[in-house]
Each structure stands twice: as structure tokens, then as C-alpha cells.
Design goal:
Strand content of chain A: under 5%
Number of strands of chain B: 10
Order of helices and strands of chain B: EEEHEEHEHHHEHEHEEHH
Radius of gyration of chain A: 22 Å
Mean pLDDT of chain B: 89
CATH superfamily of chain B: P-loop containing nucleotide triphosphate hydrolases
Structural class of chain B: alpha/beta
Strand order of the largest sheet of chain B: 6-7-8-3-9-10
CATH class of chain B: Alpha Beta
Order of helices and strands of chain A: HHHHHHHHHHHHHHH
Number of helices of chain A: 15
Mean pLDDT of chain A: 89
Number of domains of chain B: 1
Largest interface: A-B, 34 and 47 residues
Distance between the termini of chain B: 35 Å
Number of helices of chain B: 9
Helix content of chain B: 25-40%
CATH architecture of chain B: 3-Layer(aba) Sandwich
Oligomer: heterodimer
Radius of gyration of chain B: 18 Å
Shape of chain A: globular
CATH topology of chain B: Rossmann fold
Structural class of chain A: mainly alpha
Distance between the termini of chain A: 17 Å
Number of strands of chain A: 0
Chain lengths: ~325, ~250
């Protein structure tokens, strides 16, 4: 004989609804909490916390493109570098205020992304991937050529950053830098989650899954993609600016291909398309790099390679689902 | 009543291949026009030109009196044109409800809204669920679209087109691949389409064509060889020779 539970009866009467979107404050708060715990556990590694937060912001900007919009890119360093040089030059030429510098870098990243996106996003897949690499290489070459402006191979370093809000000066220990970077990352995560939860974000996911379907619904597909590219450029630019402000130097490597590739590796490590993967990926990669490089400075990439293979061959989300299914299966068969 | 859709000598070539040859057609509100023809006759290519997926090589398309030949697909949708696909084209990982909401957000011009959560648009969710209810899909609202049975996915295709509240609807083989058991639900949904909607339906199921259509147009090798009421088409010797075969 079967009996119907009250819960089951209720679901029969009320049709199911799609699951609600995750609240936008959850991920930023969890990130701040994790950073706080890490700072308590390793008080002499605050510089590392700041670096992870800055990198996570770059990976987050990439997740919006690769994970949400399905835009293949290996040129994210172009947007990061423009933010870094933008903030450095602004401090050098105009004002050393870090928050104003962030705004300038955000605008520079967003404008460059919108302008380049208007051309790049006419293409898809492998062609787009190659064009993004080429675009970043062109910017790198320009930065190298105009050494009077960028400092060329020596880097841009003759700028001074004033204390944040006139109160907190960047210290050698990295305390202020870490708090600054984690706060901006939390704001970036909040913004990204809100956008991902919005009708605009839903349409971006729709475009990722089927451009033909979205076009048939009347979605201006290219305009939407340029929109998300600009948002991504803004976050990447801000990430570049924080790096410049904390380190006090901007080098040509901030526009280089290895940075774009590493950001993509971090995204794959952490999991694309859910925003939290950016924080996880940046943390795992940076910590592995830090630990492995201190043990063997020449072969640390070997460890990263093994980790990447493991994640690609055994995706953590799928593994967790399998384990969970097995646990539930065991529980269900238990009398 | 005035024409809502008019095609003037629509011509499309792919290199040396001439796929549609100077096709002229007109649709008035309330028309139920079935476009029939053998495989490869150019029916889907014609729908792709009307909806804006493909530009015609020559000829003009008018929607409600305005020339939309050079307009994008999005602009045509905004003017009241919707279509479904012969091969189901949906976002497979999105829940069915979200899929329908996508159409509603576009219809309400909310697609650029970047700050408010989609959960805050309760009216949109209610409308999506109500629409799914009319198609017998309310109980599948939270399921990923890709995991639905094929017949149900065909219904979602129709739900998306209806969500746009079109004035002209192009249905590209809505019954293709639908299992027999799911057929009646889809047929009932087609029967309930608004009376003033202008419908162009491509279909190989002749039973459905003669049941629904108030007019039939026959396309053979890209050329429109007949356009008229079902009885006239049924008895047209050219059509019988070219397509119906009996």
C-alpha cells in the first residue's frame, strides 16, 4: 500500500517553479569570511591574500565571458593591462587617489572591451580565440613601442598612490592592500551576481546555449554580447588597477599572453559559469604556485599541469554529484 | 482586411543553386496558410528569409505595410513576427519556465535590465507558468528543457512563439518527429491559436494541412506553382503531379 505524504500532496496541487536565483550577497560575504580566516591563520601572508583577490577578480571577469556568454577568449590580459597602465598613468599624470584610479581603469577596460568587442564579436569559436590573442599582442607591442609613456621593458613605476580615502596607506606588510583587494573583489562578485540574476544575465545564458533561438525571440544578440564584454572589461581593468596600485609598478607582462592563459587555467580549475569558480580557481592556482615554487622554483608548472589534468579528467562538480548520488542511493536502500 | 505580410518576388541563390524563385505571397490577419512541397523545395529557406535569418538575393518583404527586407531578425520580432524551427532549437540547460521567461522579457523590452533579479518579476513568472499550463507543461516548469521528451520540446517551441504574442507566426513543421501520443496536445494547441493571427505553416502531414489550412500554397523547386483554397489545390493536376501524387 502506498501513502502520500502531505509534502507530496502539496507539490501535486502547486505546480513546480524554476529554482530561485542565488542571493547576490552570499558569495561576496563567503569570500570576505574566507579571506578573514586566511588572514588570521597566516598573518604573515597578507600579500598573498591580496594577490589571490586581485587574480580572482580577473578570473571573475573571464567567467562572465567564457562561463556565462560562451565567448572564447585568450586575450583577457589586454583588458587587465589597459586597466593597470590606465591606473598607473592616472596616478602619474593626474592624481594618486586609488579610488579615482579604479574608476579610470574601470572606464578604460569597459571602453576598450566595447570598442574591440564591436569587431571581435562578429566572430565565434576558434577564429574569435585567435583574434583575441592577436588583439592582446598588438596592445603589448604598442606598450613596448611607446616606452616614453609606458616605461617599456623597465615598466611604469614613477607614480605614487595616496592613502585610500586619505586614511589608509598601502603598507609593505600588505594589510591595507589585502583589505582593499578583497573589498573590491566582493563588490565585483556582488555586481556580477546581480547581473547574472537579471533578465540581461538570463539572456546571456540563452545566447550561450542557442544564438539562433535567442535571435528568434527578438534578442539583439551582438549588442548583448558587447554589453557583457564591456562589463567583463570593466572588472578586468579594475583588477589591473589594483595590481598596479598595490605593487607600485606596471610591467609589460600585464598585457602578456601567459596572464590570459593562466586566468583561463584558473577558471577551469575552479569551474566556469558559476562565479564562485573564479575565487576557488584563483586560490587553488596561486596557493599551488606559491607552495610548489617555494619547494622547486624550476618545476612548479609540473604541479599545475597535473592539477589541471585531474580537474579536466575528473570534474569536481560531476564527481561531487556522483558521490552524492551514491550516498543517497545507499541511504535509500538502507532499511 | 489589409495584408499583414507580403512577399514580393523573393529570390534566393546559393552560388549556382537557385533555392527560391521570385516567390510572391500575401497573408491577412486570420489566414491559415499551409506551405507544402517536396523535400528540398525551398520551404525552410523561404521561412529563413521572412524571419530575417537569411537575406534574400532579391525581392522585398513587407510586414504590416513596412519594408523590413533590410531589418534585423530582432526588429521583425518587435513588429510582430515569430517563428518556430523545424529542428528543435532551445536552450537545453535552462529550466522550461526560464526559457519561456526569456521570450516574455524580450517582448516586454526588459532584456537590458541588469539589476533586478528575474525572481522579482513575479508577473512574468506567472504568465510563463500560465502559458505552460495551457500547453499541459506546467508540471515540467522546473525541468531542464533538454531533458524533456521530444514532443514536449516541440510544445516549448510553440510556447516561446506564443509568448511573443505575434501577429504573424511561421511554424516550420511543428509535427515533425512528434510521437503519436503527443500529437493531440500539439493539435489542440494549434487549434487554440488566436483567430486574428496570420499563420504560415510548413507541414508534411497532409491530414493536418487539410484540417487547419484555409489556403494552401505549393512550392516546387523554389517556385510557387499554386496558391488557393484547399479544395482547389487538392484537385489541381499540377500539384497532384508534382507533390500529392494521388
Amino acid at each position: 500500500m502506498t501513502t502520500t505524504s502531505p509534502a507530496a500532496a502539496a507539490t501535486e496541487i502547486t505546480p513546480p517553479r524554476a529554482r530561485a536565483m542565488p542571493p547576490p550577497w552570499r558569495l561576496p560575504l563567503a569570500t570576505i569570511a574566507a579571506a578573514f580566516v586566511a588572514s588570521l591563520l597566516w598573518p604573515d601572508q597578507l600579500g598573498l591574500v591580496g594577490r589571490i583577490a586581485t587574480t580572482a577578480l580577473l578570473v571573475l571577469s573571464l567567467d562572465l565571458l567564457v562561463g556565462y556568454a560562451g565567448i572564447a577568449t585568450l586575450g583577457q590580459a589586454a583588458l587587465f593591462g589597459v586597466g593597470a597602465y590606465g591606473a598607473g598613468l592616472f596616478a602619474q599624470q593626474v592624481h594618486g587617489d586609488p579610488l579615482l584610479g579604479l574608476l579610470v581603469a574601470a572606464a578604460a577596460g569597459a571602453c576598450l572591451a566595447a570598442a574591440s568587442g564591436a569587431f571581435l564579436l562578429r566572430f565565434e569559436g576558434f577564429t574569435l580565440l585567435m583574434l583575441t590573442i592577436a588583439f592582446a599582442q598588438i596592445l603589448l607591442s604598442l606598450a613596448s613601442t611607446f616606452r616614453g609613456l609606458t616605461g617599456g621593458d623597465d615598466g611604469l613605476s614613477d607614480f605614487t598612490i595616496t592613502p585610500i580615502l586619505g586614511l589608509w596607506e598601502f603598507d609593505l606588510e600588505g594589510r591595507v592592500g589585502a583589505i582593499y583587494a578583497v573589498t573590491v573583489l566582493a563588490a565585483g562578485l556582488y555586481l556580477s551576481r546581480r547581473v547574472a540574476n537579471s533578465p540581461f544575465g538570463l539572456s546571456i545564458r540563452g545566447i550561450h546555449e542557442s544564438r539562433a533561438r535567442m535571435a528568434a525571440l527578438g534578442t539583439p544578440v551582438r549588442k548583448r554580447l558587447i554589453g557583457i564584454y564591456a562589463l567583463s572589461g570593466m572588472l578586468a581593468g579594475v583588477s589591473g588597477a589594483i595590481t598596479a596600485q598595490i605593487n607600485g609598478i606596471v610591467g609589460l607582462d600585464s598585457l602578456g599572453f601567459p596572464l590570459s592563459a593562466e586566468a583561463l587555467v584558473m577558471l577551469v580549475l575552479g569551474g566556469a559559469g558559476n562565479l564562485s569558480g573564479s575565487v576557488i580557481g584563483a586560490s587553488v592556482f596561486t596557493l599551488l604556485h606559491h607552495t610548489a615554487a617555494s619547494i622547486d622554483p624550476y618545476h612548479w608548472l609540473f604541479v599545475i599541469g597535473i592539477a589541471l589534468m585531474a580537474v579536466v579528467l575528473f570534474p569536481p562538480a560531476a564527481m561531487a554529484q556522483k558521490v552524492w548520488a551514491r550516498v543517497r542511493g545507499t541511504r535509500n536502500t538502507t532499511p | 482586411m489589409t495584408e499583414i505580410l507580403r512577399l514580393d518576388e523573393l529570390d534566393r541563390r546559393f552560388g549556382g543553386l537557385h533555392v527560391t524563385r521570385k516567390v510572391s505571397l500575401a497573408l491577412r490577419p486570420g489566414d491559415r496558410l499551409a506551405l507544402i512541397g517536396p523535400n528540398g523545395a525551398g520551404k525552410t529557406t523561404l521561412v529563413n528569409q521572412i524571419s530575417g535569418v537569411l537575406p534574400p538575393s532579391s525581392g522585398r518583404i513587407f510586414l504590416d505595410g513596412s519594408d523590413v527586407t533590410a531589418q534585423s531578425q530582432a526588429e521583425r520580432v518587435r513588429r510582430g513576427l515569430a517563428r518556430t524551427f523545424q529542428i528543435t532549437t532551445l536552450a537545453p540547460h535552462l529550466p522550461v519556465q526560464r526559457q519561456v521567461e526569456l521570450a516574455l522579457f524580450e517582448r516586454e523590452r526588459l532584456g537590458n535590465s541588469i539589476w533586478r533579479s528575474i525572481d522579482a518579476f513575479t508577473g512574468v513568472a506567472d504568465e510563463a507558468l500560465a502559458l505552460l499550463g495551457t500547453l499541459g507543461l506546467a508540471h515540467r516548469a522546473d525541468v531542464a528543457t533538454g531533458s524533456l521528451a521530444y514532443g514536449e520540446q516541440r510544445l516549448v517551441e510553440l510556447a516561446l512563439a506564443l509568448a511573443l504574442r505575434p501577429r504573424v507566426l511561421l511554424l516550420d513543421e511543428p509535427m515533425a518527429g512528434v510521437p503519436k501520443a503527443d500529437g493531440p496536445v500539439l493539435l489542440a494547441a494549434l487549434d487554440r491559436l488566436p483567430a486574428d493571427l496570420a499563420l504560415l505553416i510548413i507541414e508534411h502531414d497532409m491530414e493536418l494541412v487539410f484540417r487547419m489550412a484555409t489556403r494552401i500554397a505549393v512550392l516546387v523547386q523554389g517556385e510557387l506553382i499554386a496558391d488557393g483554397p484547399p479544395d482547389a489545390i487538392r484537385n489541381d493536376p499540377r500539384v497532384r503531379a508534382a507533390y500529392l501524387g494521388h
